[in-house]
Prior knowledge:
Udp-n-acetylmuramoylalanyl-d-glutamate--2,6- Diaminopimelate Ligase, Chain: A, domain 1; Protein-Tyrosine Phosphatase, Chain A; 9-stranded mixed sheet; globular; 3 domains; UDP-N-acetylmuramoyl-L-alanine:D-glutamate ligase; alpha/beta; 21 strands; single chain
Amino acid sequence: METSQLYKYxxxxxxxxxxxxxxxxxxxxxxxxxxxxNGNTFASQAISNGCRYAVVDEAEYANDTExxxxxxxxxxxxxxxxxxxxxxVLGTRxxxxxxxxxxxxxxxxxxxxxxxxYNVLYTQGNLNNHIGVPLTLLKxxxxxxxxxxxxxxxHPGEIKTLVNIACPDYGIITNVGKAHLEGFGSFEGVISxxxxxxxxxxxxxxxxxxxxxxxxxNSIAGGLxxxxxxxxEGLYVSGRVLSCSPYISFEWKSEGKVYxxxxxxxxxxxxxxxxxxxxxxxxxxxxxxxxNHALSSYEPRNNxxxxxxxxxxxxxxxxxxxxxxxxxxxxxxxxxIEAEHKMVILGDMKELGASSLEEHQKIVEMLSACGFDxxxxxxxxxxxxxxxxxxxxxxxxxxxxxxxxxPKDYIILIKGSNSMKLASLAEKLQK
Length: 431
């Protein structure tokens, strides 16, 4: 079936779902496949649960007599093509965002600022892959004045795929760092893949917002119109951290005006994320006071640099993801926080491939130089390193030990890859 015809069916529905547990009445179900499931087998159930149509790519499941099950060649391609078609029909101004670290927080900050003036659609959570991006785009309505779409990748070519679906008018790469090296093959592979956003905008004549002092980004930004933010004076937006104990306060300057903003963000590394949001807000005409209000009001969620009270301790929970770049930044920031007693709980960094032992050892050596009161390492990768710190195989084993001997009056940094389940440890420590 041609995308134009499928789009007519979509317009009857207005909503798409890929999950039979969530079938809004009148929506369109698209049967996706995974390693352990085949959505085609649930097509009839989706109709029964309230969907107007179900889209399948296996003929044996398209045997209804009412014309409500639609057969296509490939459901995933159909989803992506449908989303790209919808995005082009509406023509909403769109900002695409990617990067190794900080893209979700930056996306949230940008959306918070733009919402002060516009009706904004933005990626929910981290639905930033080949399925999440199309599902986000299909939520666009004529009422949306702008969209902020996050794009993630762990293999070469994935950003290229996503930008060709989303067709952003503007772009921002937060940074590039050592993450998903197993999939990218090398740090150069990371840079090249993230740079696929720049490549698309270069061909389209789009504009980018760029961190001025990032040499890696500058090296691939040739031929693009750049709106710059950073530490240097005289940029479109300039700024610096004023304090970070523990929340950051920062100063930003533009067009001869200077403002101080107090945030609910943990981590001096968030200065670039906040300045990006300021620059984008300024560019799209959000009033200075409204920008400041949005940034001071924003509170992080989903275990991303959250400060929480846990009995007689305070926890800095940054357990959603971890890679060598973000781990080093978190430790640098934690070292600067003023506190009488500091404790660090670090979990393994995943998907580093052949570089894993080397990168974990570097973090251990950094820890040795920090002088924290107590350091706990969790996971088999840290277990391979040479160190004298406490070590546990997993979060459950650590929690069992802490339950018998709970630390008191500490500020505790908890960081690791999501699969290490340190977020669940943080939840237990709060009880």
